[in-house]
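We recall that each integer encodes one residue's backbone shape. We quote one record:
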Amino acid sequence: MVRHAGAEWSGSLKEGKGHVKVETGALDSPYTFRSRFEGGGETNPEELLGASHAACFTMALTAALTTAGHPPSNIKTTAAVTLTPVDGKPTITRIDLATQASIPGVDDAAFQTIAAGAKAGCPISRALAGTEIHLDAKLV
């Protein structure tokens, strides 16, 4: 399976602007230097990566829990993607996943084991193997 997305940029880095979109049409958004490095209102690659990672991990956790006989009622995950300079170049150095799950009949020890496995096994985590990834998993 191959998925497609694209980006276009016009102008210089600081004064220019870009546009990113995905083949399904679910995302079709502008982005700028300001939105990436100064907190502007448009999207940025790091939040898109965070959304991808949160979605991937949540699906992997759901699959693992269901396989273990504990289908979840609800799982909610956020991802905080840290972009910091390394050797003078912007670098994604860390991703913090925070998940809260409502799962009937599972104890916290089993949940933590399953969540750690889902973090390690989700395709986005595997693609980002060079990035420090932390997980804070809580049953609610």
Observations:
- The chain has two domains: 5-37, 45-139.
- The chain has a mean pLDDT of 95.
- Residues 34 and 40 are 5 Å apart (CA to CA).
